[in-house]
Amino acid sequence: MTKKEILKFGPALGLTVALAICSTATADLSGMSFNMVSQYTGSPYWEGEGIYDLGDFTVSNGTEWVGPQENVYDFANGGVVVGWIQHSFDIGADYVEMTTTWMNLEVGDAWTFLSLLPGEFYGYHIHWVGDPDIASASLSVTGNPINMGDLNLYQGKMEAWVDSFIFDPQSDDRITINDVGLDINMQGIAWEYTNIAGNEYSQTSRIEFTFCASDLDGDGEVKVADLLLLIGAWGDCPIPCAADLDGDNDVDVADLLTLIAAWGACP
């Protein structure tokens, strides 16, 4: 078998999602709006950076965004185009799925490598329109690649640069939950697989969420401080408020019972 090293540099994998936040807490992502922007940072081996607004979307059934097909280059052979790669993005009530699909037209019946640009950030930033009260997130990967991670494709300083950014492709540390949304850093992932020229391959990264709407102060647990916030908001809530846990436009006994049932550390 022969080995051909394929390194893909390009802007489309990373997405940033920028949204306005409203004060209503939600128990899942159903019907939530979001805006996506693709972003990648530069490195000593790829100048500059890119950031691209991909548009506004709403969580629904099926895929919300499908990117264009981009070229895949063989940098071990003068940077010639050897295939294409495409990304899609689907958000459901309690998950995000990012699917990468590619075809290598030049390398057949061989162990093949496909690598994403290593650097500070090459991934997705999601800012929600609303407050989904995500308590935790877990990442898993399925698809065609046989091996993922640092494949030692390079030599010298470039290999040292890549090594300095490598961590587990399926690590939950690639996901950061922040005050306005979600960061998903897919930098440095490389796939090893057996390629047949003209065959289409795919890999899906799935992030599953748990929610904690009763954690009103956002400290990761439901306790007395959250109870006091709920009592302080007691009564009509014509303008959506976080303490209205059942979404009926007032804070009442039903919301109190919901909070008590969630007492303790968020999942």
Give a description of the structure.
The protein is mainly beta and about 270 residues long. The chain has two domains: about 5-210, no CATH class; about 220-265, Type 1 dockerin domain (Orthogonal Bundle), CATH 1.10.1330. It is built from three helices and 20 strands. The strands form five sheets. Strands 2, 3, 4, 10, 13 and 14 form a six-stranded mixed beta sheet that branches. Strand 7 and strand 8 form a beta hairpin. The longest helix is centred in the middle third of the chain and has 10 residues, at about 155-165. The protein starts with a strand and ends with a strand. Residues about 1-25 have low confidence and may be disordered.
In short:
By secondary structure, the chain is mostly beta strands. The chain is 10% helix and 43% strand. The chain folds into two domains: 209 residues, no CATH class; 45 residues, Orthogonal Bundle (Type 1 dockerin domain).
Overall body shape: elongated
- Share of helix, binned: 10-25%
Radius of gyration: 22 Å
| Coarse structural class | mainly beta
Strand proportion, as a percent range, falls in 35-45%
Number of helices: 3
Instruction: State the end-to-end CA separation.
Output: 47 Å
**Largest β-sheet summary:** 6 strands, mixed
Low-pLDDT residue spans: 1-24
Average pLDDT across residues?
79
What is the strand tally? 20
Order of helices and strands: EEEEEEEEEEEEHEEEEEHEEHE
Count of the domains: 2
